[in-house]
Amino acid sequence: MSEQTQESQDPTVEQGQEPKGSVSRRAVIGWAGAGVALGAAAVGTVAAATRSSDEEAEAALKAVPDIEFYGEHQAGIATPVQDRLHFAAFDVSTTSRDALIRVLKEWTKAAAVMTGGREVGTGATGLAEAPPDDTGEALGLPASRLTLTIGFGPTLFEKDGKDRFGLKAKRPEGLIDLPPFPHDNLDPARSGGDLCVQACADDPQVAVHAIRNLARIGMGVVTVRWSQLGFGKTSSTTPEAQTPRNLMGFKDGTHNVSGKDTPTLDEHIWAAPGDGPEWMTGGSYLVARRIRMHIETWDRTPLSEQEDIFGRTKREGAPFGKQKEHDAPDLAAMPKDAHVRLAHPDSNSGAKLLRRGFSFTDGSDGLGRLEAGLFFLAYQRDTRKAFVPVQRKLAATDALNEYIQHVGSAHFACPPGVRKPGEWWGQSLFG
Amino acid sequence: MPVRRPHLAALLSLAVAGAALTACTEQKKDSSSDGSIQVNASDSACELSKTSFPAGAVNFTVQNKGSKVTEVYVYAAGDKIVAERENIGPGTKATITSEIKAGEYQVACKPGMVGDGIRQKITVTGDGAPAKGDPRLDKAVADYRKYVQEQADATIPLVQKFADAIKAGDLAAAKAAFAPSRVGWERTEPVAESFGDIDPKTDVREDGLEPNQEWTGWHKLEKSLWEAGAITDADKKLADQLVTDLKEWQKVVGTAEITATSMANGAKELLDEVATGKVTGEEDRYSHTDLSDFAGNVEGALKAYELIKPVAAEKDPELAKTLDQEFAALQALLAKYKQGDSYTSYDKVTEAERKTFSDAVNALAEPLSKLAAAVVVK
């Protein structure tokens, strides 16, 4: 990401600030290799061969660069979308502002080391009598492009009429309570939250490890309200690449905002000075919706109806009347209630969202139906001008509604990035 | 499911040589030329011929010169039993042989076989410096051992009451006596279940049975009382068996391996019991008296914490502060559900309320998991 390279830190400063004892998880591989090499020292050629294959393995791991944690914007928004997701919404269980700030600081420190492929605290070792600081299941794994992105929900600013943390006056106008949409069937146990953390990585073990350690660090101050695992990204921030498919087998969001398209990001995704409170400048608003798909009924729907519903062909993903998936859609060629036609910016006064959703499958639902769907994540500069009008339109007339239901919903204000070591998540809000 | 641990008999391997040895020592009369230590036990004294001797196999020759049956214990720090001999009648002699390492110990004579006994310090010298622990922690362990024993002692009459009601066929009285009969056990659960052969007999749940294991204990009776609503002859036998098994526990509970760190981790384990068994309603699934067990676990954890808190608070004041707060918060939450002597039936506790309980348990158990390390840190 361009802004992150521009913002890259003086490495000496960064290393100087690193928490003590924060060991590289990859070093584990190095040590294991050293052990093998020593054991085989008598047979020099074997030792050499072992070392070289270790180096190759090490090099292969390093081939995928880590995603910079520090920057003007939070990573995990415009960043190229990873393969896996673990998203968690938290409630703050304390009324102590200090305790909350302490957790946010500890979280930031842990996030910086985990996104760098290192162990939390003093690592997965320590005193025999105590549990280790790091839970250890990511040992030996690379950072896997892990990003951790934090957001603040409306209830952090005011809950049940109470201003628990003295933040009420700082609530952005844009951080609205989302209005009810027709056909919503929202489960409160899968909705809302005072805080959220989005963990994306190419390896699910790495993403789960990150959320698990943050949840543990936060115990007593924050509690997990709900969480969602996701796989198979359903849209990408690299639209020049092939568009991924959702569980209905369709390409959707072909013209998603590109993570490299700075003008569009500035116009539609990043909160600008004057948009709201200054603490949100450089941030973005996140809408999370758990959208259940009626998979079985969809699967017995005729191909022509499926294609009419999306307004695209299934195999190629070409918009109606076009040949290729990236061809500019001719909205008029699609049925009036086609999903693509209704969701397109041209049907919504140019409103654009940066979509970052994932498919989810949580086994079956007890009736033997696949408990599956789309975990929709969308970032935008102003939810009131982007998600809300688009969803109003879709909820009213989208042909897809017969096959989907929105069952969870949440809205978060994601602050700008942590610019350098020593700063912390939410500093601009609490500071 | 109880966690199976090594049988405690192993810990007792140091103790008690049998009667065969007694006969042998008998011939030497009161001679101490073999290096044995003479113990004069009376109703008011516990005198040793020597209070300092070399490490190795040590013989204590006990003469009960009092009017009551007595028993003699050799305790290491924290009242950990190194050797013991019970039932020494008035005017009789007994020998205790034990392998004793260098260190400080106490010999206790207990006329009437009750109480802490009349204590005498001894020093065992020899190779290897005696382990120098923090005397405050030794005291904490000793006090905790006393607490565990008190809980076991207090449990017996309550279990007897429960058993009597069952044997009388009094369903209502048996139901009322069920939860109280478990409290002492729940307060000391990590120690209670450390006797691998007692826990499966008294506190196993139906789905925790091993193949061919007969289901006995509290939860079998719980099922009869609440689900069948009837007391069978077999239940009456089980009630007696429960009393017998718990009396066995009462007898051995003082021999459990206890250290300051195991106390700290035991406190955490009590919260783990709550987090996995009680908060889900799995523990007392027929009677729904889970909150009573829950409270017992929390009380037991608090007791263990309070005993080592002086040391913990000095070494990690922040942690102690957090633990104080979280214990108070969890107890305040429990208090809301207290109804007279009992607690709200757990089937009346909503999912949202259970989440609140779960969050409060996590908030306490997470810092509690750091207590053991805080205690041992230099």
Brief write-up:
Chain B: Residues 1-22 form the signal peptide. Chain A is of the alpha+beta class.
What is the end-to-end distance of chain B?
36 Å
Shape call of chain B:
globular
Cα-based radius of gyration of chain B, to the nearest Å: 23 Å
Average per-residue pLDDT of chain B, rounded, comes to 86
Structural key phrases:
heterodimer; A: 431 residues; alpha+beta; nine-stranded antiparallel beta sheet; B: 378 residues; Immunoglobulin-like; A middle domain of Talin 1; four-stranded mixed beta sheet; 11 strands; disordered N terminus; Dimeric_a/b-barrel (chain A); heme (chain A)
How would you portray this structure in words?
The complex is a heterodimer of chains A (431) and B (378). Chain A is of the alpha+beta class and 431 residues long. Chain A has helices at residues 2-6, 11-17, 27-39, 44-62, 97-115, 154-157, 204-218, 262-269, 295-299, 303-310, 339-343, 387-397, 427-430, and strands at 84-92, 147-152, 195-201, 222-233, 284-293, 354-355, 358-364, 370-380, 404-414. Chain A has one domain (84-430). In chain A, strand 7 (358-364) and strand 8 (370-380) form a beta hairpin. The longest helix of chain A is centred in the first third of the chain and has 19 residues, at 44-62. The radius of gyration of chain A is 23 Å and the shape is globular. Residues 1-33 of chain B have low confidence and may be disordered. In chain B, helix 2 packs antiparallel against helix 9 (290-315), helix 8 (260-278) packs antiparallel against helix 11 (351-368) and helix 9 packs antiparallel against helix 10 (317-335). The longest helix of chain B is centred in the middle third of the chain and has 33 residues, at 135-167. Chain B folds into 2 domains: 14-125, Cupredoxins -  blue copper proteins (Immunoglobulin-like, Sandwich); 135-375, M75 peptidase, HXXE motif (A middle domain of Talin 1, Up-down Bundle). With 378 residues, chain B is of the alpha+beta class. In chain B, strand 8 (103-109) and strand 9 (118-125) form a beta hairpin. Chain A binds chain B through residues 93, 126-127, 129-131, 216, 219-221, 223, and chain B through 261, 264-265, 322, 326, 355, 359, 362-364, 366-367, 369-370, 372-373, 375-377. Chain B: This is Iron uptake system component EfeO. Chain B: Keywords: Signal.
